[in-house]
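Lab notebook page, bench 4
Experiment: in silico fold of construct C2
Operator: M.H.
Input chain length: 509 residues
Purpose: comparison with the prior construct
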Amino acid sequence: MRRFFCLLSVPVAMGLLLTGCGNTAGTSSVNSSGASVPVSLSMTDDPPAGVSVLFFQVSLTAASLEPASGGSSVSLLSNNTPIQIDVTQLQALSAFLSTADLTAGTTYNSLSLAFANPELVIFNQSDTSLGSSCAVGTICQLTPTIDNSATVTFSSSPFPVTISAGSPLGFLVDFHLNTVIQSDLSVNLGVANGISVAELPSTPPQPQYGSVTGEVESVSASNNQFTMLTQWGRTFTVNTTDSTTFSDFPSSACSSAGIGCVASGQIVQVQVASFAKGGVLTASQVTYVQAAGTQSVEGTIIKILPLPTPAGEEIVEMLLHRNPASTSGVPLGGVATVTFSPSATYSIDNNGFTIPSGLSFTGTADVMVGQNVQVVVQPGTLSSTTGPDWGGWGPPQTLSFTTTTVALEPSQISGMISALDASTQSFTLGSSQGRWFVPWPVAASANTITFDVETTSQTTFQGFSPESFDGLTTQDFVSVSGWLFPPAGSGGSPQIAAQSVMLHSGGWF
């Protein structure tokens, strides 16, 4: 089980192969005559400084390129269905959205992206109530207004760009939440350093284009490929190779890792290594997320109810970030009260990453606030959703259910490196209140929370020179994606096994 992801405060490769989401009136379909070249798009995120942003979702409704020769703009999206992006899950991860085929030899002067329907959940750590009903120390949801135009156009570097035959083109879109979200919690997409676009390199070392999650529609084992349908209605053909790894598939699905593990109805996550014309993706990794007919959700633990409970179970509150099967009644951004059954099994969704020794997730003693977990909803236990839908200020929607399966997923935490230990390849990450995405049960007088971050030979580093542990320096502002564990001893700091570390340069994030 593993979730996909894109980011917000850390560069995220949101792939559409041009991360786009939909078409708007007036945009033409891609010209498919002549030689065509696939193009992709990616996205990243940044956290704001005033409050703890727990959930920020926005819909990408259009993505189009303007040809230098004039004429109609060219859409990078294959249909009119908006793509909903949980930006808070893109701090140090990437998400692939779509691909489009463009005519080789054409030059484009600009890229326009249209966004709509922002949704925000915050933790009010301030000393005053916000809005009409967001008290100090509470979690609140709101639908922010967009102060500036919902369409943002990029015409400076990397533009103009010319499509070259045989050379796929990818764009990385980076959200900087600490500038996009204003002091009144409105959204200004046109603010300086709010959203940026970069062109991904087309020559070695080529980037990973992020990940995409969907339901397997069909499998052709003889051709080492399958088709998958995303939540926004796009079908991709996925090629696997001898280099593709298959992660987290249970023994009930297959006896040995390979294309034989993949079956219709499963939900899987694909890490995109490359892409070709016609929406064909090549996977570097295929990860099992959910069995056919199973209902699971992923979210961040924001509260643990005191023990003991009457039946010996553990009860937590989770802010929901992902619903792989798009099950009705499970609202993203809502808060679920989840009962971990006394017979629940605990595991780490390590996705092929070797967790450092001494870090474990085997029971309730290893559960803590701030962890991301994926849980399977026990049939018949899901309650009806209560509370207001998105609109004005108010508490998030709530629901409850029981689970017997709990898997630890990577959390994403941002902060400043305060100390480095080259001998252990570890560092101390300090995250001040209001600069990361999870409310922490600390005294109001506490200004900084520290984390002990362990890196390994499998940890990836982005934006550093060199792109390794040796490129880190104190005072670097970074985002870390990794598995979060409780402190090793009394008075210690929480521990993170880092799968990726991303540098935020330029003074904003």
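Observations: The CA atoms of residues 189 and 327 lie 31 Å apart. The longest strand covers residues 107-123.
Next step: discuss at group meeting.
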